[in-house]
Design brief:
The complex is a heterotrimer of chains A (163), B (166) and C (372).
Chain A: H1 3-12, E1 34-37, H2 40-43, E2 47-50, H3 56-65, E3 68-78, E4 83-92, E5 98-106, E6 111-113, H4 122-133, E7 136-138
Parallel strand pairs in A: 2-5, 6-7
Antiparallel strand pairs in A: 1-2, 3-4, 4-5
Chain B: H1 14-26, H2 39-47, E1 70-74, H3 82-91, E2 97-101, H4 103-107, E3 131-133, H5 140-155
Parallel strand pairs in B: 1-2, 2-3
Chain C: E1 2-3, E2 6-7, E3 13-17, E4 29-35, E5 38-45, H1 53-59, H2 66-70, H3 77-92, H4 98-127, H5 131-151, E6 160-161, E7 164-165, H6 171-196, H7 199-205, H8 213-219, H9 224-227, H10 235-238, H11 259-283, E8 303-311, E9 314-322, E10 328-334, H12 336-342, H13 344-347, H14 353-362, H15 367-371
Antiparallel strand pairs in C: 1-2, 3-4, 4-5, 6-7, 8-9, 9-10
Helix pairs in contact in C: 3-4, 4-5, 4-11, 4-14, 5-6, 6-11
Classes of the chains: A alpha/beta (163), B mainly alpha (166), C alpha+beta (372).
Chain lengths: 163, 166, 372
């Protein structure tokens, strides 16, 4: 499946909006969806897709059909905007193209569905993101601590965390 | 026959036995395979053929703490690992010695900064350390120097004289 | 399991492997549920080497973070440095002079050879053979001598800087490297004779612990693990970076998916790395090794970028989010060993315990790279 077809399929659940950059003044309302084509040599990824949190499973399914590999899942704490961002990186094994899927969550109740049913490798990535940020992946087979001690209740990569 | 109440001179020498035991222990320290992080590779390199820890009697790395008397802590000890490290130290039979290899084992090393949540700043917070070998990671020659320093601590004498500055 | 019409009452027991264990290559703990000698379930427990590398990325300035990158995957430390440095250069728009790119490739590929040599020795120890370690460490020491003369370190190199490398290479390094290439090439038949053709090694590795290509894709396991399952994915070929496009080299791929395939991939990769170094030395241009006018207090532009390199263990990726200050807003380190280990639970079910340890060894793990 070529990148053009993937972009078209994402546009089915994407609506164009203003791109969000680090530190920019953004409205507190969550964005709907967004598909931006970027230059690989500049950004390191070819397609930057923002989806509503409940649709990350659809995004994962689409990229699984296109035989992409899940490279990483991580979180970002936008404390100024009181939002979390979960970033998924998928890579094509045949062309080397990379698709970055983002989802924004309210900081107070960070919940989104787990993609561990589609990509088993997401199991550990989601546990690590939960460890670091406290983001809850609903439907995850076992969201226990991965890198922190078993009894840890803190989330160290939050911007307002102090040891 | 009358009772003998005095031990004849020269029959038993207790002081020499201590020294003989110390010499035997110093020349056959059995380390535990306890690599935590980067310094473990330098410990492996010291055991390999170029630097050859076997010259000093230390090549018998025992995985089980019950069979060794030297724990070379190579690498960072973090809070999740510290109960395991403490258990291993407790399981070693006496007499036992500890070499803290590398800056992380001495004081937390490059991972010490205010507000860090995971690293134990120095393994001597968990149990007593006999020799500190600084470096990040220390060269294999530095580990050998640490073993020689431990031998000197045991026997009171250094195995080889220190080379003069010239 | 059932024999005839009666089913045997199976009782499983829990066996703890690690976190201190000679075969775990660091502080890895595996909770094994054993059915006799067969593994029912193997759950890796990690985090015993967690040293908050990503939090430190937010607390240290970009330059002060450089030593940290070498202490993640310390066996192949230059690749982690390369990924981090290139990610920052991408955001800050710094161009690296050509000679520096060549030097980066030469030192990185030498580091790959050193890493694979260490892996061969450690893998054979896991299987019970101590001798190859002594030979591979001997060859590895020669590489470390070359790299030490240039970088100043034996293991945790802090050699790459933003805009180039900190020290130029001299004729002594070039002559020494050429001599080493010839030396290791002459040693490879010896390694194949006493390891690859050894009947015990073959019985321990052939058709043991297969990992399918689909499993690799679903878990994100890259590098020799994926190439030993028949998938020709190498970042140097598909997303070329630095000056790799100028060199002719093959990417070894073996379709058998077993431990022997993963071993052969790494042995061939050593030979290919020597080819790359040889070509790089021939094509080495003159010029500066450091870009001009790199600010001392580096403040890359706001935004994010991703950069990945082909480390000795797989794809090492850096996702860097900058907010315009001198410290990163978020530094995500995508570790290859993390994804490689995540498939262990699924792939070790039903294996004999020694075969599972062969699988663990063939994944080539460095635990602080997983725990960061």
């Amino acid at each position: 499946m070529s990148l053009e077809i993937i972009k078209a399929k994402f546009s089915a659940f994407a609506v164009h909006g203003a791109p969000l950059t680090a530190g920019a003044d953004t409205p507190a309302a969550l964005p709907v969806s967004l598909v931006v084509e970027t230059r690989h040599a500049v950004k390191g990824y070819d397609l930057d897709v923002t989806v509503p949190p409940e649709r990350v499973t659809d995004a994962a399914r689409l990229l699984d059909e296109a035989a992409f590999m899940l490279e990483a899942i991580t979180g970002l704490d936008w404390i100024a905007e009181q939002q979390f961002e979960v970033v998924y990186d998928y890579t094509s094994l045949t062309t080397g193209a990379r698709v970055t899927v983002r989802a924004r969550l309210p900081r107070a109740t960070p919940e989104l569905p787990s993609i561990a049913g589609i990509y088993p490798g997401a199991n550990w990535h989601e546990r690590e993101t939960h460890d670091f940020f406290g983001i809850v992946f609903t439907g995850h087979p076992g969201l226990t601590t991965l890198l922190l001690p078993e009894d840890a209740v803190f989330h160290p990569l939050l911007k307002d965390f102090s040891a | 026959m009358e009772k003998q109440t005095e031990v004849p001179q020269g029959l038993i020498h207790f002081a020499m036995l201590d020294k003989a035991l110390a010499l035997a222990r110093a020349n056959s320290l059995w380390p535990m395979t306890f690599g935590l992080a980067c310094c473990a590779i330098e410990m492996m390199a010291t055991g390999a053929s170029r630097f050859d820890m076997a010259r000093f009697g230390c090549e018998v790395f025992r995985p089980s703490p019950r069979q060794c008397d030297l724990m070379i802590v190579c690498g960072t000890v973090n809070k999740k690992m510290s109960p395991a490290v403490r258990t291993l130290y407790d399981q070693m039979p006496e007499p036992k010695w500890v070499i803290a290899l590398g800056n992380c084992a001495i004081s937390g090393g490059p991972f010490k900064f205010p507000g860090q949540y995971a690293v134990v700043e120095g393994v001597d917070q968990l149990f007593p350390v006999d020799v500190y070998v600084p470096g990040c990671p220390p060269r294999p020659e530095a580990l050998i120097e640490g073993i020689l320093a431990l031998e000197k601590k045991l026997t009171g004498r250094r195995r080889w004289p220190v080379a003069s500055a010239s | 399991m059932s024999y005839g019409t009666q089913s045997i009452h199976r009782e499983t027991f829990v066996l703890n492997l690690g976190p201190q264990h000679p075969a775990t290559h660091g502080v890895l703990r595996i909770k094994l549920t054993m059915d006799g000698e067969y593994i029912d379930d193997a759950e890796p427990v990690i985090g015993y080497g967690h040293r908050m590398q990503e939090k430190m990325g937010e607390n240290r300035t970009y330059v002060k973070y450089l030593p940290n990158t070498a202490r993640m995957d310390y066996v192949a430390a230059l690749f982690n440095s390369h990924g981090y440095v290139c990610a920052v250069e991408r955001l800050a728009g710094i161009t690296v002079p050509e000679r520096a790119e060549f030097i980066r490739v030469i030192t990185a590929e030498l580091n790959r050879v050193a890493s694979h040599l260490l892996w061969v020795g450690a893998f054979l120890i896991d299987l019970g053979g101590f001798t190859p370690l002594l030979y591979t460490f001997d060859d590895r020491e020669q590489i470390l001598d070359l790299l030490e003369a240039v970088t100043g370190a034996r293991l945790t190199f802090c050699y790459y800087r933003f805009g180039g490398v900190c020290n130029d290479i001299d004729d002594e390094f070039i002559a020494g490297t050429r001599k080493f290439i010839a030396h290791l090439r002459s040693r490879m038949p010896m390694y194949h004779a006493f390891i690859t053709k050894n009947i015990i090694f073959r019985k321990r590795c052939e058709e043991i612990a297969p990992i399918s290509a689909e499993t690799c894709r679903k878990y994100g396991a890259t590098g020799p693990v994926m190439r030993g399952s028949g998938v020709a994915y190498d970042v140097r070929k598909l997303e070329p970076y630095s000056v790799y496009p100028r060199f002719a080299f093959n990417v070894p791929v073996y379709p058998q998916c077993d431990c022997m395939a993963r071993y052969l991939v790494r042995m061939d990769e050593m030979v290919e790395s020597l080819r790359i170094v040889e070509q790089a030395l021939e094509q080495l241009p003159g010029g500066p090794v450091m870009a001009e006018k790199v600010p001392r207090m580096l403040k890359p532009a706001k935004g994010d970028c991703y950069f990945n390199v082909e480390s000795a263990r797989g794809t090492f990726g850096v996702r860097l989010v900058s907010d315009g200050t001198d410290k990163a807003y978020r530094l995500k380190l995508r570790s290859p060993c993390f994804s490689n280990l995540s498939l262990f639970q699924e792939c070790s079910r039903g294996l004999l315990l020694p075969d599972a340890l062969a699988l663990l060894g063939s994944l080539d793990l460095v635990i602080p790279d997983i725990d960061r």
